[in-house]
Amino acid sequence: MQGNGKFITFEGGEGTGKSTQIKLLADFLAKKGVQTVLTKEPGGTEVGQELRQILVTGDPDKMDAVAEALLYYADRRIHMTKKVWPALNNGQWVLSDRFADSTVAYQYYGYNKKIDKDILQDLYNLAVGDFKPDLTILLDIDPKIGLSRSLKKAQGMQVKELRHEGRALEFHENLRKGFLEIAAKEPERFVIFDANKDIETLHKEIVEYVSNRFGLK
Ligand code: TMP
């Protein structure tokens, strides 16, 4: 059982500015006196960091969608049990840069539905049960723009986390459509923002939405 905390997830393709926006929201919430934990998938825990290295670096074809789904779910299970649920039980708000919708978008839609979607639901039930985010913020952008942002950002990185960026544009277009389809099925959980706006404008829109949704003064 979760306490009074809220679980808010950020989702989207590559280069949407999620990491920037989630950090800005965490700072805003902290200023409002909300105890906030900022985390991510994959890699929100120590073991998760090791899994992240395996998942996001190297040859795009070094494993298939099924193997990826299993590893993302291993990361997620550790993340939930060791970090997310304990924090929610403490009344903290948890903001996660990606969660299970990414697995459906990337491993199912991205790979052109080559894996059985029911298996992903089974993995969700096993690892997460009937728990769901209170809110999912989807940042939507044309993948051509997102990918070029993402490649630019990676230039300064020592370890290039570009395994998924190395896939064809079609993969990224599929997963964008996937995210929009997933969001349309659960309109009460999702809110979609146009990620092509400048950082400040987008931040203001997100803050306004979150404040209204959760009654923050
Ligand atoms: P990030 O770059 O947003 O931190 O995400 C890491 C990469 O992992 C990104 O390319 C999306 C991918 N990913 C999946 O393919 N499936 C998942 O379930 C998750 C959480 C991430």
The average pLDDT is: 95
Question: Strand content of the residues, in percent?
Answer: 5-15%
Q: Care to count the β-strands?
A: 5
Helix/strand class: alpha/beta
Tell me which oligomeric state these chains represent: single chain
State the shape: globular
> Cα distance, first to last residue?
27 Å
User: Biggest sheet, in brief?
Assistant: 5 strands, parallel
Residue stretches low in confidence (pLDDT < 50, at least 5 long) are none
Account of the protein in words:
The protein has 217 residues and is an alpha/beta fold. It contains 8 helices and 5 strands, in the order βαβααβααβααβα. The radius of gyration is 16 Å and the shape is globular. Residues 14, 40-42, 55-56, 72, 98, 102-103, 106-107, 161, 164 line the site of thymidine-5'-phosphate.
What is the element layout, followed by pairings?
Blueprint: E1 7-12, H1 18-31, E2 36-40, H2 46-56, H3 65-89, E3 93-97, H4 100-110, H5 117-128, E4 135-140, H6 143-154, H7 169-185, E5 190-194, H8 199-214
Parallel strand pairs: 1-3, 1-4, 2-3, 4-5
